[in-house]
Amino acid sequence: MRIVVTGGAGFIGSHFVRTVLEQGYPGMGGGRVTGDAVVVLDAFTYAGRIENLDPVRDDPRLRVERGDIRDPQRVTEVLTGADLVVHCAAETHVDRSITGAADFVTTNVVGTQVLLQAALDLGVGRFVHVSTDEVYGSIEDGSWAETEPLEPNSPYSAAKAGSDLLVRSYHRTHGLDTVITRCSNNYGPHQFPEKVVPLFVTRLLLGRTVPLYGDGGNVRDWLHVDDHCRGIALAAATGRPGEIYNIGGGTELSNRELTGRLLAAVGAGEEMIERVPDRKGHDRRYAVDWSKIRDELGYAPRVPFEEGLASTVAWYRENRDWWEALQR
Ligand SMILES: NC(=O)c1ccc[n+]([C@@H]2O[C@H](COP(=O)([O-])OP(=O)(O)OC[C@H]3O[C@@H](n4cnc5c(N)ncnc54)[C@H](O)[C@@H]3O)[C@@H](O)[C@H]2O)c1
After folding, report:
1. What is the mean pLDDT of residues 127-138?
2. Which end of the chain is more exposed for a tag (fewer CB within 10 A), N or C?
3. 326: CA distance to ligand 1 center in Å?
4. The domain spanning residue 76 has which CATH number?
5. Is residue 67 within 8 Å of residue 89, measured between CB atoms?
6. For the segment 237-276, what is each residue's pLDDT rounded down to a tens digit?
7. Model pTM greater than 0.90?
8. Domain NAD(P)-binding, which positions (predicted)?
9. Could you list the active site residues?
10. Which domain holds residue 7?
């Protein structure tokens, strides 16, 4: 079985690749992966780091291909012979999408269409599209099921929603075997220090203040990247064609509460919080109903938040070389 992981040098994609090669996922390649098994396709934007693949860099089963998912010829070359595509490549930072949305549209929408077309033309067995809970928009109470309409509010989530709809169309129109996952906010090692958890942790480790948006009341469900990747692997191995699976079950926290946990984990005080004006169009709360993946595929999150956060902070403490030059 050959798996192509787009964006495999990024935060989530590289976790998936390292885990596939180190442990294998049950039901994917019969447990341990063999042969010319995992191909990373990555454009190595600012967010793609070859160091993220260091632990498996010498594994003969891994091939790393530099390439842009917007380039049909390159995509066709790399997808030839693939049985499964796990599509993680995207522009991912909401703040960047507010100051400049063009790459979000070309990579997230056009790039996904280029991949879908190549997968169809080449007869790829399954296309797993890694999406986000942000496509549903903000919700005051309760949680979104997969059947809810998409009401994205940022250019990032709008471009992701566009890609989700294209995936749906390739399944409905052409019968391509697709599965979409929509996960809540992730944290863990190797996350680029522009996202709130690594941004705050690394700033605190440098003795700097942390910028808290608005009243700090925005709520997110925090899930360890390892739980997310296990959900993706389950959906890839046993999800039903054409279906969407929400992935969640992390810990719901306001940004204020999250900041408090991060300050405690690093050993810093409240005086390190700096209030800054709110993000434009800041969604108040995201929450997904993940009972479908639990009931159908047996998914359950495993990493308790306190443990996951402690190990994540320890990773940033011990890997300053990885992030120091990237800190804004
Ligand atoms: N981080 C989260 O909390 C979260 C939650 C739910 C879903 N997701 C989704 O998971 C996926 C991965 O997110 P992440 O946090 O690992 O992102 P990331 O920004 O860390 O990594 C993105 C990767 O995609 C690559 N890439 C970007 N543009 C490309 C292009 N045109 N061609 C080829 N490669 C390109 C980058 O080089 C990088 O390696 C995204 O699709 C994102 O929408 C993320």
Report:
1. 97
2. C
3. 17
4. 3.40.50.720
5. no
6. 999 999 999 999 989 999 999 999 999 999 999 999 999 9
7. yes
8. 5-311
9. 133-134, 156
10. 3-190+224-250+282-303
